[in-house]
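TL;DR need structure tokens for one chain.
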Amino acid sequence: LNIEDLSILLDPSNNFTLEELEDLTDKVDIVAYTHEHSGHFDMDFLMSLIERYNPYMVVNKGVFRLIRRKVDWDKLFKLKSGEMIELGGTRIHALRAVHPGIHPVVFLIEIGGKAIFHGDSTGFTHMFEAFSPVNLAFVPVGKPSPNASPKDAIRIIKALSPRVVVPFHGDEREIEDLELKVKLANLNVEVIKPVLGELTYVQI
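>> reply
TL;DR here they are.
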């Protein structure tokens, strides 16, 4: 996520190489982890990020347990549901995710007057209404999460009232199902489908 001269990695796991990352950005200011599952967190890749960029780390309890003896504590921040951290004018709030794990969370990132929701692998909960409204929402729609689905995704969208939604964490059928549900609900929201390996530009 590149916004307001800030570069944030959200649950990067090991889905790309450092070389591929360098083609997209020349810095990483913050790396944020919602939970410790392998599709979201990878220890070796985090160590590579630290060596190359020395970012701040904002993590849930599960990731904190895994890395607390391996990283600089001056750069490490653990967030639980209801907590917030401010880093250089950027605020990151956490709420409990509906997903297995050691206190998994979702994030609300506030920067430059904009609010951005990152939903990791979560299902729906009314707690997300506390984050409304948002400018941009990254919303999970299904596989391989046991909690995410197009049905839950549309409820998350209604709770957050975003201007733009980027669906992820699902297959093509699930993303198309969400697009249909948005149309049927007559919601004033733009749905932008990301393309694997390509930059997606979003006007918020």
